[in-house]
Design brief:
Number of helices: 2
Distance between the termini: 12 Å
Strand order of the largest sheet: 1-2-3-5-4
Largest sheet: 5 strands, mixed
CATH topology: Alpha-Beta Plaits
Order of helices and strands: HEEEHEE
Structural class: alpha+beta
CATH architecture: 2-Layer Sandwich
Length: about 130
C-alpha cells in the first residue's frame, strides 16, 4: 500500500474506533465524514528525511440544513471528530471552515470542511 493510502487508512481506523460514519466517495448518508484527497495532495519533506506529507480534505456532513438545531448538531460533530483525530499520532487538529449547506439527493445538509495532513516515514524508515 502506498504511503498516501496508508495515511488515509490510519485516519479511517480512528473514525472506526470512534464509531464515526465515514465515506471516501461521493456516496454518503449523513451524518458522516467524507474523506477525499486534499490540495495539494502529496508532498515530500526533504528537511525531514524525505518523509511523505499527505493531505486529506474532510467534509463533515451533519443534519438537514433546514432542521431545528442543525448548527448545534454540526458543532457537536466537529467536537466528536476532533476527539477521534487526537488519537492519530502526529496529526494536528484542523481549522474548520464556516458552515455551509451542501446538496445531496435534492436535500440540503449542514456541513463544514477542513484539510488535515499526516507525515509518513520514507521507504527506508519503514
Amino acid at each position: 500500500m502506498s504511503r498516501l493510502l496508508a495515511s488515509r487508512a490510519v485516519i479511517l481506523a480512528a473514525f472506526d474506533a470512534a464509531s464515526i460514519a465515514h465515506a471516501t466517495t461521493g456516496k454518503w448518508s449523513g451524518p458522516c465524514v467524507l474523506i477525499e484527497p486534499g490540495d495539494p495532495w502529496a508532498g515530500v519533506e526533504l528537511s525531514l528525511g524525505a518523509k511523505r506529507t499527505g493531505r486529506w480534505r474532510l467534509t463533515l456532513i451533519a443534519a438537514r440544513a433546514d432542521s431545528a438545531g442543525a448548527l448545534e448538531i454540526l458543532a457537536d460533530f466537529v467536537d466528536t471528530v476532533d476527539v477521534a483525530l487526537l488519537t492519530v499520532a502526529g496529526l494536528q487538529l484542523p481549522t474548520w471552515t464556516r458552515p455551509f449547506d451542501t446538496d445531496y439527493g435534492g436535500a440540503k445538509y449542514a456541513a463544514t470542511t477542513a484539510t488535515i495532513q499526516l507525515i509518513t516515514p520514507s521507504p527506508q524508515e519503514v
